[in-house]
Amino acid sequence: MILHQLIDYETLRVVWWLLLGVLLIGFAVMDGFDLGTAALLPFVAKTDVERRVVINAVGPVWEGNQVWLILGGGAIFAAWPPLYAVSFSGFYLAMFAILFALILRPVGFKYRSKRDSAAWRAGWDWALFVGGLVPALVMGVAVGNVLRGVPFRLDTDLRIFYEGTTLFELLNPFGLLCGLLSVAMLVMHGGAWLVLKSEGPVAERSRTYGSIAALVTAVLFALGGLWLWLGVDGYRITSEIATTGASNPLAKTVEQAPGVWFENYGRHSWMMLAPLLGFAGALGSLAFFKARREVPALLASSVSILGIISTVGLSMFPFILPSSIDPQSSLTVWDASSSHLTLFIMLVVTVIFVPLVVAYTAWVYRILWGKVDAKAISDGSGHAY
Amino acid sequence: MELDIVALSRLQFAMTALYHFLFVPLTLGLSVLLAIMETVYVMTGRPIWRQMTKFWGTLFGINFVLGVATGIVMEFQFGMNWSYYSHYVGDIFGAPLAIEGLMAFFLEATFVGLFFFGWDKLSKVGHLMTTWAVALGSNFSALWILIANGWMQNPVGSAFNPETMRMEVTDFFAVLFNPVAQAKFVHTVSAGYVTAAIFVLGVSAWYLLKGRYTELAKRSMTVAASFGLAASLSVVVLGDESGYLSTEHQKMKLAAIEGMWETEPAPAAFTLIGFPDQEARETHYAVKIPWVMGLIGTRSLTEQIPGIDELVARAEGRIRQGISAFDALQQIRAAGGADKVAPEVRQAFENNGHDLGYALLLKRHVDDPRAASEAEIRQAAWDMVPHVPTLFWSFRIMVGLGFFFIGLTALFFYLSARRRLDHYPGLLRLAVLAIPLPWIAAEIGWVVAEFGRQPWIIEGVLPTAAAVSSLGASTVLLTIIGFALIYTVLIVIEMALMVRAIRKGPEEDEEPEAELVPQSLVAAE
């Protein structure tokens, strides 16, 4: 096969770095409101009918949204195998916590309304709350630790070893801050979705919590940036960079220094757009909550998510997973990708299928457009959860 | 077996995979049955077919969520517990997983919500399309995951790259059209159809025994029996044995399944029953049917099927070639590239590189494969023999059940054609009792395929023992306990909800079956 030579290796690596961002943002925007909604469940809904309104607001769509996560896992595996191998095993117990929560979530949605017992339903409400909160928190904590560098090293066979990656060591102050930011961001987003999908007290409470979360998002994002500037060393490649070289991380040398995570913005000032969107989206969503503009509030919170996640990616470029104990082992865009051929094939597949997926997802959302009907739920008509 | 990290990681994978596969076959088959029932509804306009679709759809939903919940675990575990594997073959293995998400899961998961929530929001045809999308999506996902699995059994279209220390794809179409993957796909999907058919048959039989919902039950049985008969014929006739001759270790698996220690002159006899003895390396009291094995295995009268002893001898040769490949690789890496070593070293790597994985088998016995003694090489060759009695018996139970399913579905197909479905309570009871059997057959089938693959995680390329993450044993033990707890709780809840939904029966359909106007005259919308 010669076709893949049409696009050079360097370009493909950058394209797949961008697609990695698209997938993470796609997941956070699409499944993010499901997670945020589940985390808000005990706070915005008091009665059983209210809780079912909340659950039915995401009931028909969460399954499709979760595929963004599954696709994210698969695409990282296919396009960035070392990243998949190091991060999933390095964050082993954190991953287990996420899996545990994500096992509870589907079952909670589906099984809660199958029995009338109050204890049964209260139990599943807890499961759903955990299923929303824990992934949001742990994923944020993980991102915080990626920014700090993860304690792994590669031996000459590229086998991975870790030093001290227990769950508790992940919960350092900066990691926790990022975790809270992630929770606030997704709660803001979930609040915006609920305001759009519900009426009455549920919508009012969602507006209140959504507004608070939007404000907290902006504050924590600023705080996180400040902390990153003052307290977290960045990484930079000190050897010559071979952008089309073989994917072997050990071929380069790396140093750790303060402020490095901000160097990209000096070089490419357009990158400032990302943090600006992060703030503008959060504050915009706050303003739209107040102005009772439902769709714009959801769009603004999506923009905020886009800005915040892009900021992390752009700050670290070309790093995707720095190593704190052996910086040379750090994974970068130039040495942690799949082969030229695989990146090309996966790009072709993506170009064919992503537009299709977006098209039928949009069609399904259009069919399901509109507020959840609390009356239909309480009189038991329809196939609601 | 001592509790080392390899054993624990294998245990966790086996446990979570077998558990996941409790839900997958029913999803595969029932999604298609739902689509068929709803197609009949749209074509005839008779509300009972919609009631059937909704009722079996409820049971489908209870099963489906656990398939979803446990499926994510599968995808994440490769990276979590098998990180060296992920690094070593992600370039090839990751692609089908990603394509599965993109092409299959999105389709299935986006439309499954609409299946449940869309009855009042969509036109008849619109909802039917939704149901077919779910069925298509779940079957596509089986295709891609079995392309991935098939590659592990028969790693075509790829080569080792010394610079990146991993396997990289050389021919993507070879990976796609891998004969082992094709055979596995047909076999696995058919097994799913059988599972769903027996499930529908059994539950309906229970209704007939109780005299409840008899109209719905009889129609369901007719669909299930005909669908199940076709599927069980396919699952037995197109068993994935057809892929068992394509590689060296698939041959080993076949020989172990047969308890065939020595190569027999073609066409080989089929051992119907016997007692394989791993220590003595022979099968006691074997009852053999002449010619059958050769015919099934090779579809010819002249091709030989190698026995275990011969395969072990061949493996020894490949281990030696693997050692010279390993030696050449070390020289290439020390020099910093294949272009920087003497041509004969490069040549040695090119000639023997395909057996590099065989040298890695020695790592269990010795740190540097080049220092392996004759005894260690012989030992590593014998490590290639899977546990013969396990495979021998698992296979026979699976095949026996397969023939039973053909008989059962054929019987009910006949009864349905004669309109005598409710005439024989004994047969109905048999159908109820048969409900768990397809699950047993399917789980055992995976034991044959995956346990029989040991010691390889990817045949000839990477031994299982070399593929694990360097995690602490206690960490993995902790997650094993965690998974065991939550999975146990969930299966109990799932079974209870399933039984409850079955006892409750179908909901009264909103539209009564009043045929004042012949339905055939009413437009489909």
TrEMBL record, chain A:
Single GO molecular function: metal ion binding
Designated name of the protein: Cytochrome d ubiquinol oxidase subunit II
Signal peptide: none
GO cellular component terms listed in the entry, alphabetical order: cytochrome complex; plasma membrane
InterPro entries: Cyt-d_oxidase_su2 (IPR003317)
Locations listed in the record: Cell membrane
Family: Belongs to the cytochrome ubiquinol oxidase subunit 2 family.
UniProtKB/TrEMBL annotation, chain B:
Species classification: Bacteria, Pseudomonadati, Pseudomonadota, Alphaproteobacteria, Hyphomicrobiales
EC number: 1.10.3.-
GO terms (BP aspect): aerobic electron transport chain
GO molecular function ontology, one term from the record: electron transfer activity
GO cellular component terms listed in the entry, alphabetical order: cytochrome complex; plasma membrane
Protein name per the record: Cytochrome d ubiquinol oxidase subunit I
Presence of keyword Transmembrane: yes
InterPro entries linked to this entry: Cyt-d_ubiquinol_oxidase_su_1
PANTHER family (UniProt xref): CYTOCHROME BD-I UBIQUINOL OXIDASE SUBUNIT 1 (PTHR30365:SF0), CYTOCHROME D UBIQUINOL OXIDASE (PTHR30365)
Keyword Metal-binding: yes
Topological category with respect to the lipid bilayer: Multi-pass membrane protein
Source organism: Chelatococcus caeni
Segments traversing the membrane: 20-43, 55-74, 94-119, 131-152, 185-209, 221-239, 393-415, 427-449, 469-493
Family recorded in the similarity comment: Belongs to the cytochrome ubiquinol oxidase subunit 1 family.
Protein keywords: Cell inner membrane, Cell membrane, Electron transport, Heme, Iron, Membrane, Metal-binding, Oxidoreductase, Transmembrane, Transmembrane helix, Transport
Compartments in which it is found: Cell inner membrane
